[in-house]
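Protocol step 4 of 5: obtain the predicted structure for the target chain.
Materials: sequence only (see below). No template structures provided, no constraints applied. The aim of this step is simply to have a reference model before the mutagenesis design in step 5. Sequence pasted as it appears in the construct record:
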Amino acid sequence: MTTTHLPDTLMLDQQTIQTATVPATPVPYVSPGPYLVEYPKEYHFIINEPQKCEEHKPFVVLVVPVAPHNRAHRDIVRSTWGAESLVLGKVVKLFFLLGLHTGEGVEQLQEQLLQESKDHQDLVQSNFVDCYKNLTIKTMVMLEWVDSYCPNASYVMKIDSDMF
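Step 4 output (structure tokens):
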């Protein structure tokens, strides 16, 4: 049996390792450029359906990213392929993912979204600005939501509202 001797510089105690790896305060994130889509922020859900997957145990979760003002697209999906809740005996759940509307009529649109959520219980809204530049953020928020609220789904499908 051979033994190896470690140099004194490699021998660290547990407290030194913890001090070296965990800074006292996190370093603030700095964007490397003006056009990079970033996801360093913790986004929160303004409208949520946290119990739906627990109640229905879906096999497939369909997530449709759609603009907040696009009620017509949501209604068309609900009245066509989105109305299916069982396919070959497997539970399918549909959710629409939205960000925040900006510009004129923000308060009125938000009230309409709250009412729509009460009526259909299929909206998930997060506090990022809903725009083309933030589509990556929208996808990351979708993945976080599914991971947090539908972890037992076998499949997740991101599908656009204009698909038929």
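Step 4 remarks: DSSP finds five helices and six strands in the chain. Residues 106-120 form the longest helix (15 residues).
Proceed to step 5.
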